[in-house]
Design goal:
Blueprint lengths: L3 H16 L3 H38 L1 H7 L1 H28 L15 H13 L2 H10 L10 H29 L6 H24 L3
Helix pairs in contact: 1-7, 2-5, 2-6, 2-7, 2-8, 3-6, 4-5, 4-8
Length: 209
């Protein structure tokens, strides 16, 4: 078992990492704005599942193989970058169409939780930097003879921390959705968040392994 103080320290580090601005933050924010609190939470849960999958992959040695292979790393990185750009372009297209009405009168179908969950999951799974991050982080919290079970314990803690932060973010943004009733404000947010996703996608593509 992981000692309580070690688990608490790891949870704090995971929370600080999750809070840093990045693709996950943007995806959850936009999901909560376009689909409400439920969609934002679903996107956060998708991201958390992605984190769990990466840490399990590390425990099984899969992530080490990925990060050791420049070709595999680059392929996953470019696919992930393309996905971020795709999400950003979708936001831009919504801006271009200009189909924004007052929320009290809007009859268009909001972003569904399933779609938001999928976006969150793919955004995280297609980012090999997450594997690099946890490959560097986990050894600092595992004993020298750490077992696979202990790594899985840390995976559960990392997942819980990710859920905690992104559910909180989704609830806050979902509550503020009422503030964004004006269609001009919503259009501006889509433009900003869409641009951020495209920039982040291009940044990921340009980064070295």
């Amino acid at each position: 078992m992981i000692p309580g103080t070690t688990a608490a320290s790891f949870l704090l580090v995971v929370l600080l990492g999750a809070m840093s601005p990045g693709p996950d933050f943007v995806v959850v924010t936009r999901s909560a704005l376009t689909g409400g609190r439920r969609a934002g939470i679903a996107a956060g849960l998708g991201i958390a599942l992605g984190v769990f999958a990466w840490v399990v992959a590390i425990a099984l040695g899969v992530a080490a193989v990925l990060t050791a292979s420049a070709v595999a790393f680059t392929v996953v990185k470019l696919v992930g970058a393309a996905y971020l750009v795709f999400l950003g372009v979708k936001a831009w297209l919504a801006v271009r169409r200009g189909e924004y009405r007052d929320l009290r009168e809007d009859k268009t179908e909001p972003l569904k939780a399933v779609a938001a969950f999928r976006q969150g999951l793919f955004t995280n799974l297609l980012n090999p930097k997450v594997a690099v991050y946890f490959l560097a982080l986990l050894p600092q919290f595992l004993p020298a003879d750490g077992s696979t079970l202990q790594t899985l314990e840390l995976a559960a803690i990392a997942t819980a921390g990710t859920v905690l932060w992104f559910v909180t973010l989704a609830v806050v943004v979902g509550a503020l959705k009422k503030v964004f009733r004006d269609r001009r404000v919503r259009r501006g947010l889509d433009a900003v968040l869409g641009s951020l996703l495209v920039v982040l996608g291009l940044k990921v593509a340009a980064e070295a392994a």
